[in-house]
Amino acid sequence: MGMNMFGVSGLGGLLLLGLDIWALVSILNSGASTERKVLWALLVIVLPLLGFVIWLLAGPRAR
Description:
The chain is mostly helical and about 60 residues long. It has one domain (about 1-60). Helix content is about 80%, strand content about 0%. The chain has 3 helices and no strands. The radius of gyration is 14 Å and the shape is elongated.
């Protein structure tokens, strides 16, 4: 039972990592200023889940 719980949380962590990488690539490819890119990237890196959700709702998009 313990192994199954770790497997689910590990899969969720990998999914979140993939989504954060996608967000970071999109931020870096956006037309936003360098300062805004840095701030958005820091938000996604420091607060992975919350930062991703905020970026998804209000962040810069890739061209």
